Every structure is written in structure tokens, then in C-alpha cells.
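Form 12-C: Joint structure prediction
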Amino acid sequence: MARILIVEDEARIASFVAKGLRAEGHQTTVAEDGPTGLDLILADDHDLVVLDIGLPGMDGFEVLDQIRSQGSRVPVIVLTARDSVTDTVSALEGGADDYMAKPFRFAELLARVRLRLRQAGEQPAVARDDVLEAGSVRLDLRTRNAHVDGHGIELSAREFTLLEIFMLNPGQVLSREQLLDHVWGYDFDPASNVVDVYVGYLRKKVGASAISTVRGMGYRFNA
Amino acid sequence: MARILIVEDEARIASFVAKGLRAEGHQTTVAEDGPTGLDLILADDHDLVVLDIGLPGMDGFEVLDQIRSQGSRVPVIVLTARDSVTDTVSALEGGADDYMAKPFRFAELLARVRLRLRQAGEQPAVARDDVLEAGSVRLDLRTRNAHVDGHGIELSAREFTLLEIFMLNPGQVLSREQLLDHVWGYDFDPASNVVDVYVGYLRKKVGASAISTVRGMGYRFNA
DNA sequence: GGGGTTGATGAGGAACCTCTCATCTTCGTC
DNA sequence: GACGAAGATGAGAGGTTCCTCATCAACCCC
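Section 2 - Result
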């Protein structure tokens, strides 16, 4: 769909982002340091850049500064350390379009990537659906209400996000790892069985048949 | 803006809804029983109907049935008792466009009223802003993230909703009663000081100057 | 059908959220 | 300045949420 450059030295995060974006149908390139990233950006081969601030050699500010001063208008989403106010403000003043504080959940990054791509493409703000429906389950993303068979159910924040991810990918098998990345974030203990537990909670609330287990693979939401 | 008919026998709820909708700039009429409501609807003088199911004399189902069988296509939002699954399903099958389970928060009803009016008007789904910004405060309604000076802050669900209401009405004085209706719902103890407490929490997080006290009146969010 | 692997689930601790209550502070008025 | 009213706030109860761990059940392969 879009060609996205990830400038990030931590392999774990780079791969977390790249993997997720590829699963969304985007083409990804990873640059592990500033100069490489800068070259690739200036080659003007990408639709969007995800840029880490804490890079070895040449930090993200410098990269940002250079590409803007050389006239590139490619959308840039900056990754900063959590609550590094200074970083964030500088980044936005320095020409970044948006930023994410680490650690972040992939679902959030994805939302911003979509927003920036949409804005860049000048597409008329796809009347994105604020309500997901599948079978008897209805999820209102704006009011955060959920209904099964037209009868309201209560979901906690975690349950809601998990169900949202499921309903955005109906019929697809989602691995525990994918779900953990999307709902819990990349820095969560991958050995935890918290996904299993929350799938259990959801099944109790939306009906056991809504989510089937694919042994050895993960879970699938049935439309 | 729109002419809205409220068919509801409980005065407390009728006035809660009417008051809120008038504050939004709509014209409201209240009918306290089914036959009156039916007459008014058939007079075709309203853009939208909020219809209670539990009415004396002629219940909401009957009203709905009659108006649909007589060809009216006015959008109808039905009010049902909480978790009365049967009611809800019957209502939707009977031609209602949406429903709210009692007790409800006004903010939610408003969201649905807007949606239905928009659909009825065939307006091209105003690219409604999913991000509220005022001064240094930024509130992303979709991802439920909040930022102050570009630095993420954590808000609980209640805090978020309260801040949302404030930011939707910047510069306006909002009474405790209004806030209670919007954020807590109409069946909440009006003598509670919970609004004061939560304003206190918000001030700690977004800065004390963001919300000023208007003595004897309520609170105002400053843009 | 036995054994190992994978998934489901109940129990429970820690943290958090929500609200009430009582007390303290601020404000306006006289 | 003294007083009463209005608002702010700390303490804390009660409930919920989130997660871990241990155990139990289902499944697969041979």
C-alpha cells in the first residue's frame, strides 16, 4: 500500500514495527542509523518515515532537520522516550508530523500512520466506520459501547481493545504474539498467558463461539 | 437546528433530555403519552423522535408500529429499560433506528441523535474531528490518549469523559448539574460533590489554570 | 490409549478507579 | 475583620481491573 521507512537502531522495536506494518500490507525498509536513514529519505522513495530520536551517530533531530532543510515534505512520525517532554516538543517544532512515546502499542502507531498517509494523500477522509459489526456483536469505537444481540455488555478497557483488534480482522487467525503487540505493547513479557486469559473473558461476554482457537496458531474471530 | 420530539412520561427524564437537546440548539417538544406522541409524529413536524417504550396508555411499540405502517420514515431512537433484550430487539425489528438502555448518560444520547440526524440529512458524514485541541491540551477521542504540552498523561475513564465535555464546550460555563448529566447520567445523586472532586483530579493532570471556577455557577474550560 | 503439548480457567494479589465524607480554604458580604 | 456560603482536598472504603500462577482439560501424535 505505502512504502514506509523505519529509522530505528533497536532491532526489537524495528522488527516489531516492520512486522506489523507489513501485515497491514505496507512495504517497509529499516535503517539502523541516522546517516543511512537520511540517505534513504532523501532518495525520496518513501511515503512515510517512522523515526527514532535516540539514534547512534546522528540523532533523530539532526535527521529531521536535514531532511526538512533540504525540502522533503515526507510525513514523519517520531518515536521518543516516554515523557521526554523536551524531545517531543523539539521534534514537533523541528518538523515532525506526529510522535509516539515509547513504549507504545502497535495499534496506536498504526492509527497515526493511517492518519498521516490519509492526510498526505489528500484523500477525502474516508468516512471511517466508528462502529464495527459482525454477527450479533456490535462495537462502537467512539462511545466505547459493546452490544451482543442488541443487548449492552460491559467491557473493561483491555477487553475492549482486544475485541476491537479481533473485529478489525474477522476470520483471520491472530497469533498470541500479534495480539500482545497490538493490545499490550512490544515490551510485554511474551511468555505471559494473559492473552489466553482475556480471550476467556471475552468469550464469556460475547459468546464462546465468537472466538475460535486455532491450535498452535492463535485465535480467530468469526464474523 | 433540528426539531426533536420526546415521547416520555417520566417528567424527570423528559426534562433531562429536552434540556440537554435545547442546550445543543435543537427545538424540542415533549409528549407525555403514546396517543399524543403519535399525533405529533404523524403531523410530520419533527426531524427526529426520542421514544420511550414504557408509556402509559399506548406503549412505544405500538406507536412505532403505527407510524411506520402509516409511512413515516422519521428517525426514531427508542429508550428501553436496561438490558431488556426483548424490548430492544423488538424495537429495532419494529422500525426503530437506534436505542438507548436506561439509565443513560446524556453525552451518549447526543452522539446518537447527531448520527441519526446526519444520516437523515444525507450529509456527507462531516469529517468529524477525532482530536480535540485547546491550548496545550490534546485529546484523541479514538485512541483515548491525552497530551499536555506534547507529553502524554494518563486519564481514567471518568476523567477522560469529563475533559471531553469540557473541551467540546471551551470557554463556556458548565454547571455541576450539566456535567453530572453528561458524564454521570441523570439518575445520579445531584447532591454529590463528585464533580468537584473530578475537576480537582483533572486540574492536577492538565494544569490548574485549564479549568476555572465560576463561583455559584460551575466550571469553565479555557482554550 | 499414553504421554506430552497446548489451551482453559479458578484463585488471588496488587494496583487502580470511583465515590463519599469530613475538614480545610477561599471568597464575598456586611 | 467576622461570618456564612461555596469550593478544594485528603483519607479511605469498596469495587473493579489486570495480571500471574497453578491446576485441570483437550488435543495430537504415535
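Section 3 - Comments
Residues 156-159, 192-194, 197-198, 215 of chain A lie near DNA strand D (CB under 10 Å from a C1'). The CA atoms of residues 134 and 223 of chain A lie 5 Å apart.
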